[in-house]
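Revision sheet: C-alpha cells.
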Amino acid sequence: MPAIETSQRLASARALTVAAYACFIPIGVVTVLLGPLLPTLSTKWALDYSQAGALFTAQFLASTVAVGISGVLVSRFGFRFAIKAGLALMSLSVALLLAGSRIQGMVCIAGYGAGLGLAVPAANLLVAEVNPDRRSSALNILNFCWSVGAVACPFLIAAAIRSSHITLLLVLVAAISLAVAVGIWAMPASIVEPVATRVEGSRQPAIAWKGKALYVLAALFFIYVGTENSFGGWVASYAKSLGTLSVSMAIMTPSFFYASLTLGRLFAPAVLRAVDEVKLAQAGVLMACAGMAGLLISYSLPMVIASNCLAGLGLSSVYPITISLLSREFGSATSRVGSLMFTMANLGGSCLPWLVGVSSSQFYSLKAGLAIPLMGAGTMFFLYLRDWKTSLELTA
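Predicted:
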C-alpha cells in the first residue's frame, strides 16, 4: 500500500510539474508583451511617452494586487485553481487587447497583469512543494520555460507586424494559454496536489524593522525590477526612434536583452563558485551601466545589439543574489520579510517604466527617459557597497 501511495505521489508530482512548465512559456510571452508591442500601441492610440509609460503602471499595479489575492486562492482552493484563474484572465485580456479603444486596451493590460499575479506565485510554489528533493533544479527549469517565452516574444511580434497579423498572434497566444488552463482543469482525479504550506503556531522570529539591511534590500528590490522593466520595456521604442532600423528589427531588439539575461543566469552558479556573490553583483551592475550608457550613444544595429547583451549579462545575477542576501540577512524570518520585498519589486516595475515615459515627454526624447534605468543601475552599485553582514538581523 505505501508503495502504491508513493507511486501515485510521484506521478502527481511529475504531472503537476509538467503543467507548470507548460503554463510558464505563454506566461513568459505575456510578461514582456508590452515592450515590443509598445510602438504599435503608441501609434494606434496616439500615445505620447508619458501615456505609454502609464501602460506599464497598469500592468504591474494590477499584478501587485493579484499576488496578494493569489495567496488567498491557493490557501482556500489549491494551487491549480489560482493558476487556472490566472491563465483564463490572461487569455481573455490578451485576446481583446487590440479590439477597442485605449481605455479598453489599458483595462486589458491590467487584466493580463492581474492574471500573471495570480498564476506566477502559485506555479512557483506548486513546483517547490511537489519537488522537495530537487526544488532548486525544478524551479530553474520553470524559469527557463519563462525565458523561452520572453525571448521568443519580440521575434513573434516582429513577424506578426511584418505580415499584418498582430491580432491573430494575440489570439493564438490567448488560445494557447487557455488550452493549458483547460488541460490543467482536465487532469484526472488521481493527480493530487499538496496542501499549501502554512506556518503553524503564533511564535515567529521578530524582525528588526529598523535595521539598515531591511531598507537597503527594499530599495534594491524596488530599483532592480524597475530598472529591468524600464530597459527591457522601452528598448524597442528607443530602437525605432533612431530611424536607422526597420520597424521589425527594432521590435526584436528586446530579445537580445532577455536572451543574455537568461544566459547569464545559466552560468552564474559556476561563476559563484569562484567569486563572492556581492562582488559579482557589483561587477554586474557596472556592466549593466556600461550597456545602458552604450545604448544611449548607439545609432546602428550592431551597437544596439551589443548594448542590450551587455546590459542583460550585467543584470543577470543581480536579482538572484539580492534574494540570496535577503535569506542570509533574515534567516527564518525571510518568508515574512519576503512579502514586503516582492511588493516593493512590483511597485518598482510599475513606477520606473512610467517615469521613463514622463521624463521622455518632458524632454521630448527617449534618451532622457532611458537615463532612468542607467541611474537605477548606478544606485544599485552604491547600495551594494554596504558592509553585508553574515549575522542575521533579527531581534531577540
